[in-house]
Write a structure and sequence with these properties.
alpha/beta, globular, Zinc Finger, Delta Prime, domain 3, 17 helices, five-stranded parallel sheet, Helicase, Ruva Protein, domain 3, binds adenosine-5'-triphosphate, Rossmann fold, about 325 residues, binds magnesium ion
């Protein structure tokens, strides 16, 4: 078998058993216990960042409890976009929940609700009532990135499992496994650099890491390891530009800083912040206090951007702040 580029690797390597779920040990051990007695299983919420195994885990549970035909009959998968309309939720769920004619005793039914944090609050109220009045063989599994967007009465009816961002070690381990399965020719002597870059790009999101790996292979960027191109297609700034930017910051040439910044097209502000954040630490002629202040400022800028502030203005403000701190002594 040679490298397979026909199927998306995220799907091909979607874990099929609890053992295959990487790094979420605490959650999965408890879960395996819970589902042994499926009829007494609580409703559940899986919460945490993207690409950490929530949907995969829900599917494993459903497939484990309901084999073959039963899976199709007894599992209802809904997405947030299905749930915008209240009457749809009400009808669809009520139909599913209350249809119990053909079930054997203690046979469970599972409702999988993805992106539950995007369900409008009023619809969540309806959902809560449906959960409350469902027969005990119906189990709800809700998934979300932000649990604070779920109303309390739902949370209190569920066992909450928190999924964490995956560590560098775990991400690289999984990528290496896939690379081996796909018989990839990794760039000689640069494997470490390659995997570390994939981890950086992923930010702990395994889906993103796997997708970037596959994309790098599909675009033939692996052989001579074109890291700049890989960074670029992943929405990051290529290294030479970042380096030039830092040099101008240190040199105290603000005009140049601005020029280089403006030359970056399609900037992804979140990614840019992460790259800058990493590099700032490597500048040695800055005192600790300033680094701490800049770090605090990073957090603030990140928050403002997440709240919809103008990204260009925020990033320029941050660069100006860094500039002033680095060049403080010369100005005094
Ligand atoms: N913990 C994990 N162990 C193994 N593979 C994983 C894990 N997390 C993610 N993956 C890989 O990433 C893909 C996406 O994972 P999954 O759909 O479970 O993420 P999710 O947590 O539901 O993300 P989202 O919040 O974006 O829905 C999987 O098909 C699998 O290839
Ligand atoms: Mg998911």
């Amino acid at each position: 078998m040679s490298t397979d580029l026909e199927t998306p690797w995220v799907e091909k390597y979607r874990p099929k058993s609890f053992e295959e779920i990487v790094s979420q040990d605490i959650s999965t051990t408890n879960l395996a216990e819970f589902i042994k007695k499926s009829y007494d299983m609580p409703h559940m919420i899986f919460t945490g960042p993207a690409g950490t195994g929530k949907t995969s885990t829900a599917l494993i549970i459903a497939k484990k409890l309901l084999k073959g035909d039963k899976y199709y009959r007894n599992v209802l998968e809904l997405n947030a976009s299905d749930t915008v309309r209240m009457d749809y939720v009400r009808n669809e769920l009520n139909n599913f929940v209350n249809q119990n004619m053909i079930l054997k005793e203690k046979e469970v039914k599972i409702v999988i609700l993805d992106e539950a944090d995007n369900i409008p609050k009023t619809v969540q109220q309806t959902l809560r009532r449906i959960i409350e009045s469902s027969p005990p063989n119906v189990k709800f599994i809700l998934m979300c990135n932000y649990i604070n967007e779920i109303i309390d009465p739902i949370i209190s009816r569920c066992a909450v499992f928190r999924f964490l961002k995956l560590s560098e070690e775990k991400i690289i381990e999984r990528l290496k496994y896939i690379a081996k399965q796909e018989k990839l020719a990794l760039p000689k002597g640069k494997e470490k650099e390659f995997f570390e870059m994939l981890y950086f790009i992923s930010g702990g999101d395994l889906r993103k890491a796997i997708n970037t790996l596959q994309m790098s292979v599909a675009l033939h960027l692996l052989k001579d390891l074109d890291t700049d191109e890989i960074l670029k297609i992943s929405g990051f700034v290529e290294k030479p530009t970042m380096e030039k930017l830092i040099i101008s910051l240190i040199k105290g040439n603000y005009k140049e800083v601005k020029m280089i910044f403006d030359s970056i097209s399609n900037i992804d502000s979140r990614n840019f912040l992460r790259q800058l954040n990493k590099i700032i630490l490597s500048i040695d002629n800055m005192d600790k206090k300033d680094i701490i202040k800049i770090k605090t400022y990073f957090g603030e800028i990140d928050y403002r951007i997440s709240q919809g502030a103008d990204e260009y203005i925020q990033l320029i403000a941050l660069l100006s702040d860094i500039f002033l701190r680095i060049n403080k002594k010369d100005n005094e």
